[in-house]
Backbone:
């Protein structure tokens, strides 16, 4: 029988292996636990409306701040042709809200069928593509590790959020565990 902490970790660990709606659901949980207010856009989609980004984020401590999030799982590396869709979501947000989002996150679970320790890092093409569309490319393995550090009191959630929302477009590099101690 799993104790509560082990059960929570097993649930969140799905961020490392899953894709599709399961991946969106677990990333939504991680972002909520880190302190974001999360709006699942698929659950609000009305019949006949075009698809939007997977999630929208806001922060109670930073009124007016907003982010859009697209989440993808890949059996191989990140597919940069998804960038067009993310760019379109960013532009649609700008039209709907009268401004671009403060942050665009492209959260990816590449090589999801491989052991996380064996997965190759995204290449320069992924970095450049993310920069071109104004998105921060975040690996689910990194997001999971940041969540685990917060859960085990090795990092403060506010520090993870601050580092994430201040990221420049391109590949996101999480801060080290010791930088928040």
Residues:
């Amino acid at each position: 029988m799993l104790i509560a902490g082990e059960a929570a970790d097993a649930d969140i660990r799905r961020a490392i292996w899953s894709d599709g709606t399961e991946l969106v659901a677990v990333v939504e949980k991680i972002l909520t636990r880190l302190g974001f207010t999360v709006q699942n856009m698929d659950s609000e989609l009305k019949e006949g409306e075009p698809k939007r980004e997977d999630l929208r984020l806001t922060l109670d401590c930073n009124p007016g701040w907003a982010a859009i999030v697209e989440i993808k799982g890949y059996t191989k590396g990140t597919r940069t042709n998804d960038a067009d869709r993310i760019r379109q979501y960013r532009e649609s947000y700008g039209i709907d809200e009268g401004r671009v989002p403060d942050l665009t996150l492209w959260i990816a679970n590449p090589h999801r069928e491989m052991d996380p320790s064996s997965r190759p890092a995204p290449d320069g093409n992924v970095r450049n593509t993310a920069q071109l569309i104004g998105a921060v490319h975040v690996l689910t393995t990194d997001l999971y590790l940041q969540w685990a550090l917060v859960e085990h009191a090795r990092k403060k959630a506010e520090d993870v959020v601050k580092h994430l929302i201040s990221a420049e477009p391109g590949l996101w590099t999480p801060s080290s565990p010791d930088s928040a101690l």
Observations:
- The beta strands are 37-40, 55-58, 66-73, 103-109, 136-139, 170-171.
